[in-house]
Every structure is written in structure tokens, then in C-alpha cells.
Design goal:
Elements: H1 5-41, H2 48-55, H3 59-66
Length: about 70
Amino acid sequence: MPSDVRALQAREHHSALAGLRGQADMHRQERNRLVRMLRAEDAERWTYAALAAAIGCKEELIAAIVQGRTT
């Protein structure tokens, strides 16, 4: 166990970060799944621009998701 309070705090933040990475991965995968599903079901309605606006991100991210360049 670290003897310095700052080292202990750093350890706690490091542990919390590991948990957040797992949550971020889960949310990213679900977002990507839903984007691909919407696009596949109705590409005319769910253009890259429409998806980006609905989700609140850039069209480039939508393109990467749809084209499988991001997981």
C-alpha cells in the first residue's frame, strides 16, 4: 500500500479509469450497432448527415462506423 496520500489517490484514479474504459467500450459498441442498424434499415432517411445530427457527432464518425473502420 502506498504511504503517500497522493500515490494512493493516483492508484484510486487509475483503478477507476480501468472501469471506465470497459464502460466506454460497451457504449461505443452499442452506439455503432445501432447506427449500422438504422442505416441498413433505411439509408434514404438515415443519411450520414441525418445520423450525425440525430446522434450529435460528425459525419466522418458515422462514415467510419458504417464502413466498419471503427469498432
